[in-house]
Amino acid sequence: VVVLVHSPLPRLRALIQRCWGRLERGLWPGVFGDHSQPWGPALAMQGLALVPQGINDGGESSAVAPSPLESVVWMAAPKQRRTIEVNRCRRRNPNKLIEIKRNIDVCPECGNLKQKHVLCGYCYAKVKEETRLVRMEIYKKERGPFNAPTVETVVLYEGEKPTEEDEGKRIIERARKRPSWFVQN
Amino acid sequence: GAAWARGVLSWARPERWLASGSLFPLSCIHTSTSLQKIGKWEKKNRIVYPPQLPGEPRRPAEIYHCRREIKYSKDKMWYLAKLIKGMSIDQALAQLEFSDKKGAKVIKEVLLEAQDMAVRKHNVEFKSNLHIAESQTGRGRYVKRVRCHGKGMFGIMKISRCHYFVKLVEGPPPPPEPPRTGLDQAKEYVQQLRNRTLVHTL
């Protein structure tokens, strides 16, 4: 059941608000045609399981039974609407404002901003990109999972030749100049 | 829009009007119906001051920029706007870059756009020599939608949007006000007491 009302007249809006209030409080269970639940007391009271029997008896018993409202736990509800001044005091309290961060520095490599305890985002991104291209070259050689050789890998850039140390290692070639941050050993 | 444009052109370029043989007053005017309403903040960039006299101190450049209908709550955006009020633009960009909020990214874009505008159009020499004089949020258009609960119940939720306004002023940021101490308050109280006089007397 979907009801959307756009700009109702004042009286119609009041009527809808009253209906909505009754729906919310559970005083109108018959709206959606669901009669499975027995109609219980509408107020949010705990500790009252039975429907008060005095309704059916009516005028038979003159003595009033002990009021069922004594052994009841009341739920918390706001008593008064919070004014905008009170709301502002709470929302603009210094403990709710965002604190300025004093741990921002300049990365010595690229000059972008970085946090002191975190890697520089730009440098990390550029290394990540280069690694992705190296892995693409590796994939071209291996052509699938579980084909990694049991020897070490060496990445060589343009104009570089394998040295004596790289005798038995697998060589991955990248068709570009060696980046300054990738030191060759 | 069309009437305003016609009025402007009629006194600005009368020779063009008379040059064309037949009278087609609207043919020279490019009428566009793209923008429904230009907001007040955007119009603040259009004010032109008269030239300054030689002895006057230099008026610092002011750049107004805003972004409309951002998909974010105005109350949450207000915290970010409050954060960067009064900072220099570099410090503001640094704080926003490492903030985890969704609105921080949007405000950063707005600040960069405004900085670019300042350098290109508003005759600002150094792009770092700007500070944020005003930064405010406004309420955008809300849309009501149905939110389904259990047991066939429904609620009406509102999808909120906000505007963000910023004013950059050339120059270093103003020094922050020193916090009011008890001594200041006491002095003000004593001064108030001393200012009392007798009214309607000699």
TrEMBL record, chain A:
This entry's Gene Ontology molecular function terms read: structural constituent of ribosome
Keyword Transferase set for record: no
Q: Does the keyword Metal-binding apply?
A: no
Q: Where in the cell is it found?
A: Mitochondrion
State any GO CC term: mitochondrial large ribosomal subunit
Arranged from A to Z, the UniProt key words for this protein are: Mitochondrion, Ribonucleoprotein, Ribosomal protein, Transit peptide
What domain of life does the UniProt record list for this protein's source? Eukaryota
Q: Output one GO BP term.
A: translation
Q: What is its main location?
A: mitochondrion
> Which Pfam family, an example, fits this chain?
Ribosomal_L32p
Purpose of the protein: Component of the mitochondrial large ribosomal subunit (mt-LSU). The mitochondrial ribosome (mitoribosome) is a large ribonucleoprotein complex responsible for the synthesis of proteins inside mitochondria.
So what family is this one in? Belongs to the bacterial ribosomal protein bL32 family.
UniProt protein name: Large ribosomal subunit protein bL32m
User: Organism source for this protein?
Assistant: Bombycilla garrulus (Bohemian waxwing)
Q: Which gene encodes it?
A: Mrpl32
UniProtKB/TrEMBL annotation, chain B:
User: One of this protein's GO BP terms?
Assistant: translation
* Signal sequence region: none
Compartmental location: Mitochondrion
Gene3D superfamilies the UniProt entry points to: Ribosomal protein L22/L17
Q: Which domain of life is it from?
A: Eukaryota
Assigned GO CC terms: mitochondrial large ribosomal subunit
UniProt protein name: Large ribosomal subunit protein uL22m
